[in-house]
Model the fold of this input.
Amino acid sequence: MKATTTPSTVAHNAMPPPSAVSTTRTSRVAPHSHIKGLGLTPEGLAVSDGAGFIGQTNAREACGVVVELIKSRKFSGRALLLAGAPGTGKTALALAVSHELGVKVPFCPMVGSEVYSTEVKKTEVLAEAFRRAIGLRIKETKEVYEGEVTELTPAEAENPLSGYGKTVSHVIVGLKTVKGTKQLRLDPTIYEAMLKEKIVVGDVIYIEANTGAVKRVGRSDAYASSYDLESETYVPLPKGDVHKRKELVQDVTLGDLDAANARPQGGQDIMSVMGNLMKSGRTEVTEKLRKEVNKVVKGYVDQGVAEVIPGVVFIDEVHILDIECFTYLNALLESPMAPTVILATNRGNAVVRGTTDVVSPHGIPVDLLDRCLIVKTDTYNREQIAKVVHLRANVEGLKLGPGVLERLAEEGERGSMRYALQLLTPASILAGLSGRNQIEVEDIGEMNELFLDAKTSARNIGSEGGFDGGRM
Done:
């Protein structure tokens, strides 16, 4: 093995020199950190390297059409299949779709192997994923009293149960806004809540008329002092009337509602607590409970209180599912509350798992395949691999010397793009040990001597199944 020639030669296995402790925060760089979206123009055409996505022009434009269908809620209960060789960007496409949809549309990713659990049935795992991908936006109008506290006077009365003490019969609260003032006579339980919130005169609060819940917003800015540092939060005097209506919007999923209703509510005694500890971590939701939740949700939607938002279920490595799961997927896609389903696989003709003689394209039964729109991902050429490597080096903060990008693109074309990307960080460590701040071509050469790519490793396996080098 050649040692890198520097003013002071350092072996590749030497300990790095001690460095000054850095105070800057570093965040972990994930494999798809550079993907920010599909990179499409307003007309739906793919930009060559837009939003961190290189290549895959046709696949990105097809996914752009699907995103528009999902946003217009016209793709519910349908499936999209991303098919292509390993390392061609199928998972990246799904993540780009989730970026395009935004945080308001539920996106539930999973891998095919997640259904094989010892606690929960396979079909239950799929049903949970489908329910988590259906959002419910609840709009609620509440009557509130909001303003700055100008008066806080508890009125006491003789305790009817005992002649020795007095109790609070009611509390008088004065609230002030920009538009006017109002005096309220409130229940003693609300006064207890105000004591818990440590509310005093000069605080800005709001009280819900229906429930009596009290919330301290902050201190009125009229009381702001000239201190440089303060722990108090100052807020402006509320506008409008003291008594007003506020519209609150809350986003939940059907999976959240199922879990909340399925969780057993035990007692507070020691036996109930111990019983809950001994139970399994996951609770199966019955079909009867789901129907009850659906009925309540339908009532909310009919009243105009709630709105159903179908999201996306992304199942990677879908060929890992067996024939039972595929049959259940057909039923779930036909249900009235079904999200959009995106599937990804890298298989060609394969035996459907759970059968012995059923060979099907992509390892998916033909009846489910017939429900899918299929998008093909293409392999990357040398120029595109070079662009991806350059982008990843920028994301990871690595400097590349002359000729390094071309060498890595060559390695990516010979082996795989993933192998070329995986060489970046080890090569940067080797460059750092040699006292350089950028990766040189000889670092890549030494990494090739230390590590093998998948194709080279496969060639090293002899005809008998062992390694020729070690005669295993």
